[in-house]
Write a structure and sequence with these properties.
heterodimer, A: 255 residues, mainly alpha, 8 helices, globular, B: 208 residues, alpha/beta, Rossmann fold, 2 domains, five-stranded parallel sheet, 9 strands
């Protein structure tokens, strides 16, 4: 009797384990499919960007020009430039990334790609994450690579450059993510540029504050771990929440 | 192919203060085709977009295989292909690259499958050209190749024969006939009639 009971519970346990295994296998398969789709969406955006290089260059040229205007407008005296350098760098980076945002979803909304993404049966959140990642690779990373040049022209010492590159790299992740929400929300609106900046600039303030602070500390040769960690925390928060919000906003805009 | 039925119950859709869909109901069995007709502005596109879940109806529901599609929209989307007015193609990618990404996002796709589908729509000679250099009819053909590649049970087509020549229209008819023979279902919004090759179809007339 007791052996029968134990064998019965045994079979129940095996079945439960098998069901659990099957369920986790479907989850794994779904995740694999979502990642494959996200990879393709990322590659598509990169390939398209290299076909239309002018769109790629615009924000970078803007960043370079704005930072070079300050020595002309303020004073070529290095001590005065050094004092305003962190603010100038970050405001220019913020505006340059804003400039690139308009292109993030505009073409995809226009030619029906977003619609097909929404109807693909894949997770729209992952696809939005992929699009934002492509946007960051195409604007955030080049901005971070150009930041040393701009910083040098504003009187930063070479020792400060690694810290500046690190802060722009991490900060631009959050800027792209916040921007993706704004761009998705303003999709249905013609001439959305002004509204887009009104939406995203206030949300970008923490990045501006900690980014400029990190740059300032780097220029003084002080340890900049604290603001960098805060920038990283913002980036993690953005990676977790922004694609969800952008996907929801895209769905609304498609209606 | 699954033998799911598409049931539409009493759909009402408002756009602002305009009552676009006024209680649309129909049932579409597997292997059947439905032509949706009506004058411009009668809501043909809105009906298709409501069916695939892009628009939210104020009243009524859409059932797929007996389940409300709102319950699991993603599972429903894996079963359907929607082709709107404009082919969903990137002007700066070639026809082949477009299909590689568009269909690849939905399912794994081999190069051989791609070649077969492109040859089927007569795109073999120009499939490497950028889409911006293609004519409207050629773009439509690329979209049809994508449709054939998706291999899903439900097709929702908005004016599938626009911009196509006589041979292109026959191609649309042939693709629809194949889809029906596989046990798939087709809903097509049309101004004129579907090509005769598509076979018999039910009709749903929307009033303006």
């Amino acid at each position: 009797m007791s052996s029968r009971v134990s064998s019965a519970t045994g079979s129940v346990a095996t079945r439960a384990a098998a069901e659990q295994g099957a369920a986790s296998a479907t989850v794994a398969a779904e995740t694999a499919a979502a990642l494959r789709a996200a990879r393709l969406a990322l590659l598509r955006d990169l390939q398209l960007a290299f076909r239309k290089r002018s769109q790629l260059v615009q924000p970078l040229a803007f960043f370079a020009l704005v930072t070079m205007l300050f020595p002309l407008a303020v004073s070529p005296e290095l001590s005065r430039l050094r004092a305003i350098a962190p603010g100038v760098l970050w405001v220019a980076a913020l505006l340059a990334s804003l400039l690139a945002l308009e292109f993030l979803f505009r073409d995809d909304a226009h030619d029906g790609t977003l619609e097909q993404y929404a109807l693909s049966g894949q997770s729209l959140t992952w696809l939005m994450f992929a699009k934002t990642a492509a946007h960051w690779l195409l604007t955030g990373v080049p901005l971070a690579l150009m930041a040393p040049l701009a910083a040098l022209s504003l009187g930063a010492s070479p020792a400060a450059l690694p810290g500046i590159v690190a802060s722009v790299t991490v900060g631009s992740v959050t800027l792209s993510l916040i921007g993706s929400i704004g761009a998705a929300l303003t999709l249905g609106i013609k001439r959305s540029g002004a509204l887009l900046s009104l939406l995203t600039l206030p949300l970008s303030l923490p990045v501006l504050i900690f980014g400029a602070r990190a740059t300032e500390l780097a220029m003084h040769g002080a340890p900049l771990a604290a603001p960098l960690e805060l920038l990283a925390a913002l980036a993690v928060l953005g990676v977790t929440l922004a694609p969800l919000a952008a996907a929801a906003a895209v769905r609304i805009s498609l209606e | 192919m699954s033998n799911e039925t598409l049931e539409v119950e009493n759909l009402h859709l408002w756009r602002g203060d305009r009552h676009v869909l006024k209680g649309v109901s129909f049932t579409l069995a597997a292997g059947a085709c439905l032509e949706v007709t009506g004058p411009n502005g009668s809501g043909k596109t809105s009906l298709l977009r409501t069916l695939c879940g892009l628009m939210y109806p104020e009243e009524g529901r859409v059932l797929w295989g007996g389940h409300d599609v709102r319950g699991d929209l993603r599972a429903f989307h894996t079963a359907l292909a929607y082709l709107g007015h404009e082919p969903p193609l990137k002007a700066d990618l070639s026809a082949r690259e477009n299909l590689h990404y568009w269909i690849g996002v939905r399912r794994p796709l081999s190069a051989a499958e791609l070649d077969t589908a492109l040859a089927r729509v007569g795109a073999r000679t120009w499939c490497e050209r950028l889409v911006r250099t293609l004519s409207a009819g050629q773009k439509r053909r690329v979209a049809l190749a994508g449709l054939a590649l998706l291999a899903v049970p439900l097709w929702l087509l908005d004016e599938p024969t626009t911009n196509l020549d006589a041979e292109g229209r026959r191609l649309v008819g042939g693709l629809i006939a194949e889809q029906l023979a596989r046990g798939g279902a087709v809903v097509a919004a049309v101004h004129h009639e579907l090509p005769p090759e598509a076979g018999p179809a039910g009709r749903l007339e929307l009033a303006a």
